[in-house]
Amino acid sequence: MKPIAALQNIVTPWSDGLEPSDAELDAIEWELPLILADVNLLDAEIAVLDRAPSELDEQRIRRARRRMLAVRRDLTNQATAAAGMTGGAA
Fold first, then answer.
1. C-alpha distance from residue 23 to each of 27, 32, 72, 84, 87 (Å)
2. What tens digit of pLDDT does each residue of 22-76 get?
3. Which of 73, 71, 74 is nearest to 36 (CA)?
4. Which residue has the higher pLDDT, 84 or 30?
């Protein structure tokens, strides 16, 4: 039997290019509000997986869902404005 460690460099060679580029970091930073809103929604949904949601839980889920949709809308509008598109898409 051959140990997998001996083949590790062949499977995943180390490269200096493993760090994210500046463009990738900028994209992550731009999407960060949406990522955080998604995490808040998941937290609210996970909290009620093993029990019936109370009125407060339902309100928290609705609020998190509305926040996530609002952030998604804002990012879409920003991307559209940045691309120079102004309404009337065919």
1. 6, 14, 20, 20, 27
2. 999 999 999 999 999 999 999 999 999 999 999 999 999 999 999 999 999 999 9
3. 71
4. 30
Q: How far apart are CA 57 and CA 53, in angstroms?
A: 5
Using CA atoms in the order 51, 54, 57, 58, what is the torsion angle rounded to 10 degrees?
Answer: 110
Tell me: pLDDT of 9 over 90. no
- Which amino acid is it at 19? E
Look up residue 30 and give its two tokens.
């731009």
The answer for residues whose C-beta is within 8 angstroms of residue 45's C-beta and 6 or more apart is 61
CA atoms within 13 A on the CB side of 6: 3
One-letter amino acid at 15 equals: S
Cβ atoms of 21 and 45 within 8 Å: the answer is: no
